[in-house]
Design goal:
Elements: E1 3-13, E2 18-23, E3 29-40, E4 54-61, E5 64-69, H1 71-82, E6 90-91, E7 97-105, E8 117-118, E9 125-131, E10 142-152, E11 161-172, E12 178-182, E13 189-195, H2 203-206, E14 207-214, E15 219-226, H3 227-233, E16 240-247, E17 253-256, E18 259-269, E19 278-279, E20 286-290, E21 296-306, E22 332-338, E23 344-354
Length: 358
């Protein structure tokens, strides 16, 4: 077998808020890095989705940034790449573990021999993970973290490129106002991801319209399509399925999921039958659940737009020849009209970059 999974960091306690720096010493290409983070809930009042326990993930080579995303952005990008969420345990009950998984994909699929991060071509590659376990689940006060690498055994490939993924731009929105972003013209785009994940706000609350064009609009790729219309006609509309669980307190409590649009859910008691148990219509990524005090319940939900993210690129994700090449144009611009919501929007980009390039 020519593939293997290595342990980059054995499980260790995450006692304090910190940034963990790990030297990437594998003398082989990395197909992907997997971060596992667990938190033991300290109460039954939801704080946020477990993905929030990690605030930032970076892979750097000195000052050269090869990957840089928040935990939420990492999971959003992974969903667009794989059409499913990584493993999360959205548990919000006291003294039970919640957990989140973060996949940093350097290839189009696991063990892609043409696209992988070739650590041999960089001087001092490091992984940096900023975390605060209390920010997800129900305010966990204990936690652990471990890290794994999908890599190759002999014969080793020499992948010419890897997927470089970064937050490109972040801004505070003004309701119903335009924001203009000049996009980079260095490497081909695989995924161009506008993303926003705000309490009670749906995908269309945050995105009112998209327009993507080049060369002063001599080429228009997305022609002023409204957020509500884009939400229904985008090329890849994958269903987001997710479970969560908690403890009732006799009043409606808000629980977090990944999906931000057109969601619905079902719920029921998991220790007794509770006739009062019901789940309301979601407000963006939050569901109100009413359940008898002390009754443990579980819920199953469906929806769209994981963590409020979409891919504006309209090509086959696994065909590099089809990817958007910005060097064909003199300038590339993106206009985003905000919806009526409040908060911040981000734009992230996944590009094909040669290994060892600076």
């Amino acid at each position: 077998m020519n593939n293997r999974i290595s342990t980059i960091l054995a499980s260790e306690a995450t006692t304090v808020v910190a940034t963990k720096t790990i030297d990437l010493n594998e003398n082989a290409p990395l197909s992907k890095i997997v971060i596992r983070f667990k938190g033991k809930n300290n109460g039954s009042t939801p704080t946020a989705h477990p993905a929030k326990m990690v605030s930032k993930i970076e892979v750097v080579d000195g000052s050269d940034v090869l990957y840089s995303m928040s935990g939420v952005q990492c999971q959003a990008m992974d969903f667009l790449e794989q059409s499913e969420l990584p493993f999360n345990c959205c548990e919000y009950e006291n003294d039970i573990e919640c957990c989140a998984t973060y996949d940093l994909n350097f290839g189009r699929f696991p063990w892609d021999r043409e696209f992988a991060l070739d650590l041999r071509t960089f001087k001092n590659p490091q992984l940096k993970i900023s975390h605060d376990k209390s920010k997800g689940g129900s305010a966990p006060d204990e936690g652990t973290m471990s890290v794994y690498g999908y890599t190759f055994d002999d014969p080793q490939p020499s992948p010419p490129n890897f997927l470089m993924t970064k937050e490109l731009y972040s801004y505070t929105i003004t309701a119903n106002a335009n924001h203009y972003i000049t996009l980079p013209r260095d490497y081909p785009y695989r995924i161009l991801m506008p993303q926003s994940y705000e309490p009670t706000k749906s995908f269309t609350d945050m995105f009112g319209a998209f327009e993507w064009y080049a060369d002063n609009k001599r080429r228009v790729f997305i022609d002023s399509i409204t957020g509500p219309e884009w939400a229904k006609i985008q090329p890849r509309l994958d269903l987001v399925e997710e479970d969560f669980a908690g403890l009732g307190n006799a009043a409606s409590e808000e629980y977090w999921v990944a999906a931000t649009y057109e969601g619905w859910g079902q719920t029921g008691g998991r220790n007794i039958v509770d006739a009062t148990n019901f789940i309301g219509q979601p407000s963006g990524p939050q569901y109100g659940v009413t359940c008898a005090a002390g009754t443990s319940f579980a819920a199953h939900t469906n929806g769209y737009y994981a963590f409020g993210a979409t891919n504006l690129c309209m090509h086959e994700l696994n065909d590099p020849k089809a990817w958007f090449d910005p060097l064909e144009y003199g300038d590339v611009e993106l206009r985003i009209l905000a919806g009526g919501g409040a908060g911040s929007n981000t734009v992230c980009l996944s590009q094909s970059r040669p290994n060892g390039s600076h």
